[in-house]
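Incident review: delayed structure delivery

Summary: a single-chain prediction request sat in the queue longer than the usual turnaround. Root cause was a stuck worker, restarted by the on-call engineer. No data loss occurred. The affected request and its eventual output are reproduced below so the record is complete for anyone auditing the incident later.

Affected input:
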Amino acid sequence: MSRHEALNPDDHRDLRIQERRDAALGDARMVCIVVPAEFRALQAEYPILFRLNETRDRFSALAMFGFENGENLYLADGRWDARYRPLAIDIQPFLIGGRPDEDGPKQIHVDVDSPRIATGDEGVRVFDKHGRPTPYLERVIEQIGELDHGFRESGDFFAALQRHELLEPFTLEVTLEDRSDNRLVGYHIIDEARLNSLSGTALAELQAAGHLEPIYMAMASLSQFSALIARRNRRAARG
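Output delivered after worker restart:
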């Protein structure tokens, strides 16, 4: 359950946030939505897949953390075991007020029912005693701005992928060392053969729009599946 409030120093002067990473704090998730502007950083840590929202006929991009619902193989001893965390994860429990595709200034909201809301003297302050944003909140505000900008830019990226038919269905079947079978279905990846068959004009169009780099980053990210499988095997071996 979530309960969102517009963040302000009058109502949230004493608000503190738990920064550690733990399943109990909302980090037990298999996937996280990401934006193309993050792909360069993401591809070095996570597989990036695409999923179609059937009701809106639009694609979104996801960073993969595990093979089943609620599994995050990057959680370890109260920390996130990767050099980069997706923006949508890092800004929690804050979010952008309003629709991501709306223009104009956005208001920051906070989920006051989030398990990240600290009690007592735990956690990091959001506002100082004078009601001014702390360095922590300033960082979050910057990240929210990056994420908002990334969402607004992503529509053109996904439209280009669909226009050039660059997404193909993807299924992954993995048998782990504990003999358990894992199957990922319902996702898409970049169709490399289709990309290689595009005309020079089409490639130039993608390059001019800034779409080629995230396309190649998404393709490169699939090599991270082997590391993700290794994480799962290590966790299973520890029991």
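Verification: The CA atoms of residues 52 and 59 lie 4 Å apart.
Action items: add queue-age alerting; document worker restart procedure.
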